[in-house]
Design a protein that fits this description.
elongated, CBS-domain, alpha+beta, four-stranded mixed sheet, 4 domains, 15 helices
Length: 435
């Protein structure tokens, strides 16, 4: 009886050990370092060990594989003969006289029982636990896995080295832990399926992925729409302009908008009564202006604005002229969406006509229209939809002119000063392929 209990204990021990290594393997791959780092910073020793395990993922994955292999082999070597010997006496009442037949039946049943225990308790259950609770599982296995790794480190290193040599021989680079990360497409899918975040948080995260591909010219206020103050105009004219547009900052130019002298803050004009002085000039209050190329990466523009505490920068074209300007609000809107204040006009950029037809502002980007219709225009660069129409037609369109491209119909609704202001966009029905 004692031997039976001991052998049963050994079989279950190897099954559970196999489960431990399986759980460890899935947990350390699934857990994020950011889930463990806060606990490690507070001095939690188990979390520090877990942090080291995750940081050296390749080595510890090899350790778990070695553990799984060793316990599986041990289970087959010890478990199956034990279960087979246990089953054989139960077959005697069936009157099977041939020892080879009895032995074969007992072996088959033993193999089935061990395989069942191995799969259920040693594989599926621990794997599910580790996937559902990666942080708790990683913290639980950290100590024993670290000990196992230290004891078997020479064997693990030897096996890793041999495996890498074989991979090098056939021209394959060994994978590293740093490569175990999500692609942008996977992150987008994860965010779209995430139920624990708000729509706003999800949109900010998705916008951040597009942000690094954008340039300043994609969000700038174009040259023709800039409201600026002339350094040579009368004080009354400039004050009327300020009151009319109600902006907090204005570029100050002399001669033409290509010669911007600085940026004036409205509060600097009105915080004292200096604007009432007949001798008042904008040169007295404007501040230095920063020029950037219109092709500057948007993330670099944001970084510069935050560092220098600027809310407005001017953009230069390839010839040195003024291409437009960018405000901090323009940049942040690419991350958080449209920011309305009490002076903004509620003019929507996109008006839905029906499921497949929209009236859009000519300044929205091709990316916006692609997302709206689920179509791709195969553009090498992000441009406005008005610019796209002009590029495809090869000339400035007139009102009512139509363009068909990529399964979409574009009807020009409004053109002002050679700029496409408004476009009706219609998704065309897909043509059925002839069989």
């Amino acid at each position: 009886m004692g031997e039976l209990l001991f052998n049963t204990f050994i079989v279950l021990l190897f099954v559970l050990l196999n489960g431990f290594f399986v759980a460890a393997e899935f947990a350390i791959v699934k857990v994020r370092s950011t889930q463990i780092e806060p606990m490690a910073r507070k001095g939690n020793l188990r979390a520090r060990i877990a942090q080291d395990v995750v940081a050296h993922l390749d080595a510890y994955l090899s350790a778990t594989q070695l553990g799984i292999t060793m316990t599986s082999l041990a289970l087959g070597w010890i478990g199956e003969p034990f279960v087979k010997n246990m089953i054989q006496p139960w077959l005697e009442p069936f009157g099977i006289e041939n020892p080879a037949v009895v032995d074969g039946i007992a072996f088959g049943l033993a193999f089935g029982i061990i395989t069942f225990l191995h799969i259920i308790l040693g594989e599926l259950a621990p794997k599910s636990l580790a996937i559902q609770k990666p942080q708790a599982t990683t913290l639980a296995i950290a100590y024993p896995l670290k000990l196992f790794y230290v004891v078997f480190k020479p064997i693990i290193w030897t096996l890793n080295t041999m495996a890498n040599l074989i991979l090098h021989t056939i021209g394959i680079q060994p994978a590293s832990g740093g490569e175990l990360m999500h692609s942008e497409e996977e992150l987008r899918l994860i965010l779209s399926q995430e139920k624990g975040t708000t729509v706003t948080s999800r949109n900010i995260a998705l916008n951040a992925m597009d942000f690094r591909r954008k340039q300043a010219r994609h969000v700038m206020i174009p040259r023709k729409e800039i409201v600026a103050l002339s350094a040579t105009a009368s004080a009354k004219k400039n004050l009327d302009n300020i009151r009319k547009h109600k902006y907090s900052r204005f570029p100050v130019y002399k001669g033409s908008i290509d010669n911007v002298l600085g940026i004036v803050h409205t509060k600097d004009i009105f915080k004292t009564d200096r604007h009432l002085d007949p001798a008042f000039k904008l040169e007295m209050v404007y501040r230095d202006v920063t020029f950037l190329p219109e092709t500057a990466p948007l993330e670099k523009v944001l970084e510069l604005m935050l560092q220098k505490k600027m809310h407005m920068v001017m953009l230069a074209d390839e010839y040195g002229g003024t291409a437009g300007l960018v405000t901090l609000e323009n940049v942040l809107e690419e991350l958080v969406g449209n920011i309305q204040d009490e002076f903004d006009r509620e003019t929507p950029e996109i008006v839905k006509i029906n499921e497949n037809e929209f009236l859009v502002d000519g300044s929205i980007t091709t990316n916006d229209v692609e997302r709206l219709l689920g179509q791709e225009f195969s553009m090498k660069d992000i441009i406005s939809i008005g610019g796209f129409i002009i590029e495809q037609l090869g000339h400035i369109p007139k009102k009512g002119e139509t363009l068909r491209a990529n399964g979409t119909e574009f009807i020009v609704e409004k053109v002002e000063e050679n700029v496409v202001e408004s476009v009706r966009v219609k998704k065309l029905p897909q043509e059925k392929k002839k069989e």
